[in-house]
Specification:
The chain has 137 residues and is an alpha/beta fold. The protein is 39% helix and 23% strand. It is built from four helices and five strands, in the order ββαβαβαβα. The longest helix has 14 residues. The radius of gyration is 14 Å and the shape is globular. The termini are far apart.
Amino acid sequence: MAIPSWHADTSRYPLIVVHLVGADGIQQPDVESLIRIVEGLIERRERVVVVYDISDSRPDAQRRQMLVAWLKRNMDVFRYVRASAIVAPTAFHRGILVATLWFVKPRSPVEVFGDRPSAVNWAIAQGQRAGLSWLTK
């Protein structure tokens, strides 16, 4: 069985939707695939809005700590991200995010949603406010 990995849908660029492929809610996803996506966004040096859909993920304390440590070391990589929406479908996912955001203070707006359509609509509106006027719903 293949390890679930993160994928970036750029079909509506500069809106980027990051989601899991091959996830079953049980097996842990490949964290490195998420880091590669974020680093790839930064290499482009273009303003974007990002939706992170963590549906079907199974967060754990070790991976959360690893992500927090990486984010603290690399906060400047998000200077091109104008807003981040996070799809957290369960109270458990939302609790993990709240705890993570206590340790990491994003430079741009971050909002948590229970479903992807709401997150995408918010991200597009934030992008339009940030001057990414070609974003459409």
